[in-house]
Amino acid sequence: MKRVLKYVLIMMGLIMAPHANAQIADNNKTLKISPIQFGKSYFELSMEFDMNGGKSSLQISPMALLKKDNFEEFTGIQAEIQYRSYLLRLDREETDTWMFSDIDMFAGAYALGLIFSRDYKAWYNGFGPEPIIEADVTQDILAIESGVVIGVKFTLGKRVTLGFLAGGGVRYSDIQDSIEAGLNIDDYYVRDNDSVFDLGYFGVKPRLNLQLGITL
User: Fold this and answer.
1) Closest CA to 47 of 82, 10, 88
2) Measuring CA to CA, which of 2, 117, 139, 144 is 20 to 30 A from 193?
3) Quick count: other Cβ atoms within 10 Å of Cβ 36?
4) d(Cα 161, Cα 170) in Å, to the nearest integer?
């Protein structure tokens, strides 16, 4: 745990250190949500702070993970920090940007940490002596991730924004599975985390996101 936390702090420091003296504009903050996360029972809320006259920004994104139904119950929290450098801006007054006021292209770096716990039913795999067909399993995940992204942000009118980003990073995760007392977890089908989009994935992975926002 200490090593994981130390890694997160180092990554955040590396992202922020070159910009420690940047000036944050008081009148240019953007509050955002990520609609694609709703389908997974995740609620991500982001605040982007413009710096250096809009040439760069700092985005902070906490996320709550919460679900309970007949098949599983989970809770979790994730925190992310992202630095963006804006590379190109197309202004409607100077170029033809169709229905958008501005089109901004950016590149950046991010670091995040996740704490997650899930309870679910695991089925007997038929290879052990256990007489119980299904058992209660708890899966705890601790994960960190850091990487780089590129993206584009569209401004509709004066205040509404629509942003897309893509990139990739390296994810480290620690998974602990535990089963109800008296049973052997090896005799049951526990949930794997083989997909690059699973919370407990370990390795190099892609990064995609869509955000809707409003400038405050």
Assistant:
1) 82
2) 2
3) 12
4) 28
The pair of three-digit structure tokens given for residue 139, joined into one six-digit string:
């899966």
Residues 6+ apart with CB under 8 A from 99: 156
**Cβ atoms of residues 139 and 120 within 8 Å:** yes
* Residue corresponding to tokens 């940490």: 113
All residues at 6 or more sequence positions from 85 whose CB lies less than 8 Å from its CB, including other chains = 55, 56, 106, 107, 108
Q: Mean pLDDT throughout 67-95?
A: 89
Selection from 82, 38, 83 nearest residue 64 by Cα: 38
Q: Which residue has the tokens 């944050």?
A: 24
Whether 169 contacts 146, CB under 8 Å: yes
200 DSSP 8-state letter: T
Separation between Cα atoms, residue 79 and residue 155, nearest integer Å: 26
Of 104, 107, 133, 105, the closest CA to residue 121 belongs to 133
Residue 14: what pLDDT? Answer: 53
The structural domains of the chain, with segments of one domain joined by +, span 2-115+140-173+198-215
Decide: 145 and 112 in contact? Cβ < 8 Å.
Answer: yes
- 92 pLDDT more than 60: yes
The pLDDT confidence band at residue 96, using thresholds 50, 70 and 90, is low
Q: CA-CA distance, 155 to 150, in Å (whole number)?
A: 17
Q: CB neighbours of 16 closer than 8 A, spacing ≥ 6?
A: 58, 81, 83
